[in-house]
Design a protein that fits this description.
This protein is mainly alpha-helical and 168 residues long. It has helices spanning 10-29, 34-49, 93-109, 147-164, and strands spanning 56-58, 63-65.
Amino acid sequence: MRTWRDVFNSRQLLELKVYQEELLRISREKKLNLTMSLLLAVTIDKIVDYSTSLCRWVPGGEFAAATLGGEKKLPMMWDYVELVPHNTGPGSWSSMVGWIERVLVHFSNSSLERGTVVQADATIPWLPSDSVDVMITDPPYYDAIWYGDLGDLFSVWLRRSVSLLGLE
């Protein structure tokens, strides 16, 4: 696999392309606002996670694991499971819309306050100890986990959707 295209079979690529074309058509015909168009683009991006030749069947749980399957690596396998996004099961359009809806409802019902993100050395205190309720750090993985490479799988599709909508 030399390009991101190589992790998809021809049916999966066609299905994702059709979703993007429908996103463009619906956005224009229904004159969707920016937020709605972006949410639909993110829904396609979620479908990408279940539409690669790197998805596998989890026999003990009787379900299909997404591309990353909760892990921070791209698995190498002999065979893969292929889901049907236009159906109603796991990895489908309706299940991904439901997932995004649950996230939006959760955030809108939460009392979370806006946070501040700072890149700093976690070994050097830079805030008074009683000035924050919580501080979250991410340990240095160095080259153990290639977050940028893993993120490219999804950003390629999201960038394409956003570009089709003229939202670059």
